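Q: Got a minute? One more chain.
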Amino acid sequence: MAGEEEEQLLPGERSSELMTGVAEEFPPESEYSGSGGDAWASVRCDFPPYRLHHFFHQFRRNSSNPNNFLKGVKWSPDGSCFLTCSDDNSFCLFTLPYDDVNGSSDPNSDSYMANLVVNEGESVYDYSWYPYMSYSNPDLCVFATSTRDHPIHLWDATSGQLRCTYRAYDAMDEITSAFSIGFNPAGNKIFAGYNKTIRIFDISRPGRDFEQHSTVLGDKEGQAGIISSIAFPPTNSGMLAAASYSQTTAIYQEDNMELLYVLHGQEGGVTQVQFSKDGKYLYSGGRKDPYILCWDIRNTANLVYKLYRSSEGTNQRIHFDIEHHGRYLGTGGQDGLAHIYDLQTGLWISSFRAALDTVNGFSFHPFYTIAATSSGQRRYRCLDDSGDDEELNGDENCVSIWSFYSLDEDGLTK
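A: Always. Here it is, folded:
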């Protein structure tokens, strides 16, 4: 069965026509983007957005886990759909109805059902969209996942079928799981984070072939701990950032994995890193750490600024994101609020109530002036509790799509 899966066309096996210019440019805006490419220039983030779509029933009634909760949400690179991850080890893919992008949602029911559900076998550690994913090209419509006690899986986002696996083995010749994964900007390699190790897989060669690089040098210098997040700058500058639960963030050279420098300052284990759109700044957030740190990678002696979010009381990974023009950063928090910051000044702009429980996922659409949030947290019930789903409000354990207002000659518009 695995052999049949690996015979399918992989992203790294694209035709020469499709590969032309892949490393130099990002995917063009699809039919879903409309005129939204320049809309962020006039967006008003100081006004709370309005809810466009809402989903909550299907994460409870269709789940095998009665205590299921959402763990994150990510838009696809082409903006055609978004992917959610839940504690029941499932991924739900929702296609954005581009003919109803300014529609409304009934708050008492789901806006629509997921187009695709993919179930993993164990707890999900990380997941990542293929950077040149295009819904109009099924060969490129894939995403990768990493789960406990399993290899890295590459899934077909149109059929839900497993395309292939990328397997790493330890000294006992047993499969070891990646704690973080990320595609390089060229889209031909998967970088995977392990305990004090980063392994690199060629996408066109599934199986157990990989390069291995230790993050700890001979004198125990470097970056210790589990590599929890991997990010590349959008400018394709040849660098990558790797976060560790040892409270450090390191910058490496992509081609030879040379360690350039290590950043300290996070109060908790670092759970996410992301570059600014111009590749000059790096943002990092940690577990039980109320601040997102901003670093100037050209001068790492001091922090540029800190961005507050309520996360000091939860072990959850709380995601943040930067909109595609690079002006605004959005993040959730355990207080149910989503915060918007101006990255040019590092100042808070506004907050809005996104849910009634922890907002653990925040993702800006790549073209439209909309964003997706996910919320949820583990709930411990008493023995005499019935466990009915009716205990949860519609604004708990939910996914919402928010649309920001724009400013034109006539004032605020949707």
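A: The helical segments are 2-6, 16-19, 58-61.
Q: Perfect, thanks.
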